[in-house]
Amino acid sequence: MKRILYSGFTMIELLIVIAIIGILSTIVVMTYSNDQASARDAERKSDLEQYRNALEAYANGANGIYPVDSSVPGVAADSICGASGLNLTTTCPVDPKSGTGSYGYKYLSNAGGTKYVLYAYLERTSTYFGLCSDGVSISLPTYAPTIANCP
């Protein structure tokens, strides 16, 4: 009697390979979205540094006084950019997710314009990151920074 040999994969082998590919693609997608959030947070910190540099240059030309805006929880940082003549090399940086939820850069100063805090909400850690006029960076878990949070 002749034996007939069939070549190919069984249904179970195909299903196992498809399941493995599905699991690996899920892992890649999850890692990619976390990396995107981390990249946006790094951009936020860099943008706040640009604002801080512009504010320091502004204060150097204004006898150490920063633009005054003491409205709580602060104004959008890009609103002080054009109004007060901050000298940024290109345009005022805008949050990568601006207009979505809590995202956006904020600026708050004391009434005399001698202290300020710049802050943004970080999406990866769900905290607020702030830069104070004295060069200190702060991180607050549940509420936006105020001048009182700066040392």
Explained architecture:
A hairpin with a 4-residue loop joins strand 3 (116-122) and strand 4 (127-132). Strands 1-2-3-4-5 form a five-stranded antiparallel sheet. The chain has a single domain, classed as 2-Layer Sandwich (Pantoate--beta-alanine Ligase, Chain: A,domain 2), CATH 3.30.1300.70. It has helices at residues 11-60, 77-83; strands at 75-76, 106-109, 116-122, 127-132, 137-140. Helices cover 38% and strands 15% of the residues. With 151 residues, it is α+β, with helices and mostly antiparallel strands. The mean pLDDT is 82. It is built from two helices and five strands.
Q: How is the secondary structure organized here?
A:
Blueprint: H1 11-60, E1 75-76, H2 77-83, E2 106-109, E3 116-122, E4 127-132, E5 137-140
Antiparallel strand pairs: 1-2, 2-3, 3-4, 4-5
The largest beta-sheet arranges its strands as: 1-2-3-4-5
Task: Return Rg in Å.
Answer: 25 Å
Helix content: 25-40%
Q: Characterize the largest beta sheet: strand count, sense, and whether it forms a barrel.
A: 5 strands, antiparallel
Which regions have little confidence, pLDDT < 50, spanning 5+ residues?
none
Structural class: alpha+beta
Question: Strand share of the residues?
Answer: 15-25%
- How many helices in DSSP terms? 2
Q: CATH topology, what is it called?
A: Pantoate--beta-alanine Ligase, Chain: A,domain 2
- CATH C-level class is Alpha Beta
Order of helices and strands: HEHEEEE
Q: Architecture in CATH?
A: 2-Layer Sandwich
Into how many domains do the coordinates divide?
A: 1
Roughly what is the average pLDDT, rounded to an integer? 82
Cα separation of the termini = 92 Å
